[in-house]
Amino acid sequence: MIAIIDYGMGNLASVKNAFSKIGFEAIITSKAEEIMGADRVVLPGVGAFEDAMANLRKLELDKTIEELVVRGTPLLGICLGLQMLFSESEENGIHQGLGIIKGRVVKFDLPNQYKVPHMGWNQVQTASGSNLFHGIPENSHFYFVHSYYVVPEDKSYIAGTCDYGKDFVCAIEKNRLYATQFHPEKSSELGLKILNNFGAM
After folding, report:
1. For residue 201, how many other CB atoms are within 10 A of its CB?
2. Against a cut of 0.85, is the pTM above it?
3. Contact 44/78 with Cβ under 8 angstroms?
């Protein structure tokens, strides 16, 4: 069973439908006991960092996520779900994240020809030996919608990078913790392959 964390932000139904399409049973839940009882957990997210963290803390799901990581339950963060794993974000001021990964979330500062938010399909360069990108060709395209990106202190977490006016980290992987800045549920067949790789772990 895959639990998709519902904290009031994120395109939950599209993530659930994507897992269903590839044969994985998934539930959308905000109940800690259901999340802790799942075989794998997804932390999705769309919207503002500060609001998302406030919602997680109000529901006390920040503690649940921290416990999942300690326990070693496979966890997949998507978009804002990736960013919240980090120490802090500079989105609309400085706001504390979950702190599971040391590092910051910073805004794109790019030449005028690059529009922000970064929106649309772009190539991803992947790290060798990645479980999340297993069987996916190098430089494959995935779908992005974001104005901020992550900067991990520990470069060993980096599983994928993307070039949009500059190279930025778009995927992380460490032990059983995974996350992508792009939306696999919106990234056609290769996005489903990412979700299938996660579901099969």
Report:
1. 14
2. yes
3. yes
Chain-centre distance of CA 192, in angstroms?
A: 14
Give the CATH number for residue 171. Answer: 3.40.50.880
Catalytic site residues? 79, 183, 185
3 state SS of 6: coil
Task: Report the number of distinct structural domains present in the chain.
Answer: 1
C-alpha angle 82-153-101 in degrees, rounded to nearest 5:
40
pLDDT in tens, 143-165: 999 999 999 999 999 999 999 99
Structural domain of 29: 2-93+101-199
| Gap between the Cα atoms of 138 and 46, Å rounded | 27
Q: What is the DSSP annotation of 20-41?
A: HHTT--EEEE--HHHHHTSSEE
